[in-house]
Amino acid sequence: GTPCKSDRSLAEAKEKCHALFNDPKYGACLKALPVQDKYLESCVYDYCADPNNFCDAVQAFEEDCRALKLVDFKPTVDACGVCGGDGSTCGTTCRAWGDPHYNTFDGITHHWQGECDYLLVQDCTLTKQLWKFAVHVRNTKRNSRGVSLTESALVQLPGTAEQIWMSRNEVRVFKADGTSIVATTYPMTFGGNTIKKLPQRATAIEIELGAPVYGTLKWDGLHSVTVFISKKNPTLVGGTCGLCGNNNGQGIDDIKYIEKHNYFNSAGANLNWKVRKCLDTTFDSPKC
């Protein structure tokens, strides 16, 4: 039997669980691990007991699937522990995109047309760490329209020496010894950070950031960088700096900073977050 209170709730549970287990992301695991065997029945039981907390069976299936090493996939339970969640409930997101626009961690949108390399976000806490997480974005002139474009991004991975440079044409890994390689095979792991391929474009990737950031960075392969920082490390709440703001939950801080540094005046704004001296739009190696 099940704790379902009616035939309707039982049918709803079966429909929901069938949809979860038949997700194409599981690929070969769907044949190697017959879900009807034990997982589906447990899922239906859990859903009837609590529709908001029924992913134990799905997690068990995913663990068994990973053990077979047949396919890689994004877990159904997000970093916040939410079944079917997108991770947004336990962290904050900043985005740079287009020509170019910025959404800060605290929900403020601003725009900047400078042509240089800028600090998008950095771990600005006082904790001692040899390689602190940082993201630089490169803005270059967009034809003759009087605007600039987020052309590429450079990531200092947390806790390891490697840096990842992402552009429309390639993804390049800079190593501690000064050498670099073009990323062609995924996933790649450096320290506690994993780089995965995204389907949108040839150079679109997602970086799962390990300690102490515990978040993700996504590059769409064109002109968009999205950084998610979880609340798993409380020191980063109010502990970031750059165009993404300080991540303290108070958007008024970002507004005051934008006004203080006159972001809307292209003649001299935003010098605070320049990460190199820029005389024109031609740069050397993107390595920090």
Q: What coarse outline follows from CA principal-axis ratios?
A: globular
| Structure annotation, total helices | 5
- Which range best describes the helical content: under 10%, 10-25%, 25-40%, 40-55%, 55-70% or over 70%? 10-25%
Global mean pLDDT:
83
Q: How much of the residues is beta strand, in percent? A: 25-35%
Q: Specify the structural class.
A: alpha+beta
Distance between the termini: 61 Å
Element pattern in H and E: HHHHEEEEEEEEEEEEEEEH
CA radius of gyration:
22 Å
Which ranges are low-confidence, i.e. pLDDT below 50, for 5 or more consecutive residues? 262-270, 279-288
Strand order of the largest sheet: 3-2-1-14-13-12-11-10
Pick out its properties.
288 residues; 15 strands; eight-stranded antiparallel sheet; seven-stranded antiparallel sheet; alpha+beta; globular
In brief, what are we looking at here?
The protein has 288 residues and is α+β, with helices and mostly antiparallel strands. Helices cover 18% and strands 27% of the residues.
Description of the molecule:
This protein is an alpha+beta fold and 288 residues long. The chain has five helices and 15 strands. The strands form two sheets. The chain has an eight-stranded antiparallel β-sheet with strand order 3-2-1-14-13-12-11-10, with no helix packed on it.
Fold topology:
Elements: H1 7-21, H2 29-32, H3 39-49, H4 56-68, E1 91-97, E2 101-103, E3 109-111, E4 117-123, E5 134-142, E6 147-156, E7 163-166, E8 171-174, E9 180-182, E10 188-190, E11 193-197, E12 205-209, E13 215-219, E14 224-230, E15 240-241, H5 251-260
Antiparallel strand pairs: 1-2, 1-14, 2-3, 4-5, 4-15, 5-6, 6-7, 7-8, 8-9, 10-11, 11-12, 12-13, 13-14
